[in-house]
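Ticket #747: bound-state structure for phosphoenolpyruvate.
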Amino acid sequence: MSENIKTNSVKMLANLREVMAQDVEGQARLDQITGLIAGELRTEVCSIYLFRDEETLELCATEGLNPQAVHQTRMRMGEGLVGRVARTGKVVNTDDAPHARGFRFMPETSEEAYSSFLGVPIQRLGEKLGVLVVQTKAARVFSEDEVIALEVVAMVLAEMAELGIFIGEGAAMSARHQQPVLFRGGIGQEGASQGHVWLHEPRVVITNPIADDPERELERLHNAVEELRVGVDQMLSSAATGDKEQLEVLEAYRMFANSKGWMTRMQADIDRGLSAEAAVEKEQSTARARMEQVTDAYLRERLHDLDDLSNRLLRILTGQGAQTGAEMPADPVLIARNIGPAELLDYGRSLKGIVLEEGSVGSHAAIVARALAIPLIIHAERITTEALNGDYILLDGDQGIAHLRPDDTVITAFRDKMAMQEKAQERYASIRDKPAQTLDGEVITLQMNAGLMADLPSLVGSGAEGVGLFRTELQFLIRSHMPKRAELSGLYAKVMDAAGDKQVTFRTLDIGSDKVLPYMKPNDEPNPALGWRAVRVGLDKPGIMRMQLQALIRAARGRPLRVMFPFVAQREEYSAACAEMDKAMERERILGHPLPASLDIGAMLETPSLAFAPDSFFDEVGFLSIGGNDLKQFFFAADRENERVRKRYDTLNVSFLTFLEGIVARCKAHGTPLSFCGEDAGRPVEAACLAAMGLRILSMRPASIGPVKSILRRTDMRELHAVIVAARIRGDQSVRPAVMNYLRGKL
Ligand code: PEP
Ligand code: MG
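RESOLUTION: The complex was predicted; output attached.
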């Protein structure tokens, strides 16, 4: 780096610091800054453009261009060279601006006289704030050093903007993080809620971006990086060796922590006058900007790793730990880039909602959020950058929308919606202890689905008559290692304790397909949903299945035990699984352990094949539970995880209902107890139709029990059945329109 430029940048930053310290209006500050940059870099023009909304930039200060254009000249993102810098987040450096790609002439600025143009983005941690531009009449390409010097200045400007130093008149200079922002994401868990932002990882605030003792800053950086390296090495040595993913992340951390390029760039920035923390954040901002452009999943992950590492380093440097001393609000809505299931469980039910920048419907965090019945919005891009601790936020989990700092009209509309939901909840609570008896006297048993200890309080609260499906894989999914038998039996025993006299149906491990254990080698299968999953894995590798069956038997300790095997496609699989259970019982007997008082073994009917199993299967199986989620995806050959096709086929399609009716008839003929435990059991209209098709036990999310019971108690099943039959005879594709017509007024 040339000494001259280095001095320039150090001097510019020293002057900037003076401007920061002055007690003047934001506009006066910006004006001074453009003057001093133009002076130091010896350019005729220096201009600062800031965003007035997400799409529009506004000229907010200039040295050299027509002063009348300030706050008048605006451009859209991507428009002209300034808009190009803003959109791409990349530098534009040209000695012939009028002929550069995208140039747009702005007559009011009188900029036609300038040939060379250097524009750098003003951005902070992925948040685009504006563009800093210098221009000269003489044609020249700015040197790399000059570009970097301007980037350093832009970085400090971003910090200053974040600190609220440029607040002034008009939208472009209004305080940051004060405006209402709407985030459209994906639905992780339905429900509406309101509360105040609680950032899982609080933002680090840098109050001193400029430093005048580079020696000292370098020493601070070195010490902090050393502390970081030691920390990463410690994490590596204590990481579970089987956890490939965790090791991979830590190795990436180590790689970055030892990366010469990373260090050299930060040292150079310190040389130019930045403080150690500002140098770290500048690198982090660059990585975030790159992240937006990278589509390769692996590379994105690594950039995320670098981001995490920078956060750690910033915390070391600023002393701002994860605990900032801020008080968690009474009604916290958790905002995070992503979160692990165990961390989410730590927050527990205190959360009013969760908004993630990443995540997916099938992610473990989503599973936990569902179990806790907390509204969850996923893919809310950039919310961690925009939201501040304590901000008021409304979540519409049904639409996947978050309103951050909403205005009054939104609040009023939203509160109306919440009030309606609360009224409905009161209605559900009033029938909690009443049976789900239809108008024609049929009694439907409503049970709940569970999988975590956190679910169990709902057993009392929801009015569920038992646990119709306990998904045991969740206990395997939320850990970073295979749970031990004693751990599992302790947990299953607690579930039975909590259930008391109510029945619990444990489903053995259902892994594979979308549920991949973090500590098991993933199988590279072309169609995992049709692949090696559930009971197929259990039978081929019986070690885990035996351990689990033993844990269940031990947990029962003289109590009744009910177990079902998932994804049974043919009778032989069921018989083989039962044989494993027999062996496990025998082993326990020999060991002298108390056996369950009774043993009820069943299968999940999740593939059409099992509906056509021989009669002897229906006699042999203790009970059947229809896993409607899987059964429907195989019936229609439509992936349940694929948004495009998932909703294409209606559960109330005549063919599917007729198919279900056939299963009910076969079970009836053989006296085989039958239930339905897919998601459709928890949807009121679908649940009523399932009951009309003859199903008498439905198992669903606890929060669905109230709404389902409410509709069942107001419906005459014979009438509803007649409506369905009439629609079928008419040849309707789906009975939904006819059913909705009939139910109108009952919902
Ligand atoms: C189902 O397939 O309907 C079911 C209940 O099992 P899971 O959703 O866990 O696959
Ligand atoms: Mg299933």
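RESOLUTION NOTES: The first strand starts at residue 45 and ends at 51.
TICKET STATUS: resolved
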